[in-house]
Amino acid sequence: MASKSAIRRLNKEYKAIAQSPPPYICAKPLENNILEWHYVLRGPQETPYEGGEYHGVLKFPGEYPFKPPAIQMITPSGRFQTNTNICTTMSNFHPNLWNPTWSVATILNGLLSFMVEDETTTGGIRMTDRDRRILAGKSHNFNLDNSKFKEIFPELCTPQAAPLPDNVPKPQVPASTTSVPNLPAPQNIGAKVQFFTPHAQLRNRPLVTKVAPATGTEEPEAAVVPSPRRSRWFSFEPYYKLYVILVIFLYLIAAKLISRAASTPV
């Protein structure tokens, strides 16, 4: 069930998209379910998807905008599996990377940018550019055979796909699926990761410190390996109090025996 904030936010976004549609993108929610949006991406010029018309769905959680949607594509594209959740930084595969300020337009722009890349992802497939162009040419007729598409997008149900305007800008392609503008890098990237032995954990003393692989050109630091002597000493650490008590106890017994021996007449 959609929360009040989700309903208010999605209604606001639908109004914004209707007034100023993003290039290559058409999107709208179902009349009876604000959490299910259907979209159509137009293939950009000078890509294997040029002339294509790709129908898909966004399934928003009731907690939106605080949780990301699931993203699927219905029309065969040669880039994504059909009716399968697609892994991007703006999908439910990465809730830790989600930014609540992102909108439906942001999500679909990101998906379109990712589509024209060849980066491997869950839900993605690899095909030749020739096969993708063939699918692009068949996409409009494929959509016309889909009753859901005809119900939601009657304005697109023409004998031929409408040509793109000449002044449509090319989509901005991010460097990768994880390099999204205005998104702070994950805190564990490039951060020091501490590894503990079971005994050292008890005293919270790291024995080995390594650097997690970073996304840039920075080289990871070499591991600091403890000396054998230090390792042996820390392996006894949890019991050192017991050893001290035992030594003191033995010392007291020995002292008492010596005292008795000294006081016994010869």
TrEMBL record:
The chain crosses the membrane at residues 239-258. SMART domains: UBCc (SM00212). One of its GO terms (cellular component) is endoplasmic reticulum membrane. It is an enzyme of class 2 (transferase). Its EC number is 2.3.2.23. The keyword Transcription does not apply. InterPro entries: Ub_conjugating_enzyme, UBC, UBQ-conjugating_enzyme/RWD. Keywords: Acyltransferase, ATP-binding, Endoplasmic reticulum, Membrane, Nucleotide-binding, Transferase, Transmembrane, Transmembrane helix, Ubl conjugation pathway. It is found in: Endoplasmic reticulum membrane. GO terms for molecular function: ATP binding; ubiquitin conjugating enzyme activity. The keyword Transferase applies. Gene3D superfamilies: Ubiquitin Conjugating Enzyme. SUPFAM superfamilies: UBC-like. Residues 5-162 form the UBC core domain. Its main location: endoplasmic reticulum. This is Ubiquitin-conjugating enzyme E2 6. It comes from Tieghemiomyces parasiticus. The gene is UBC6.
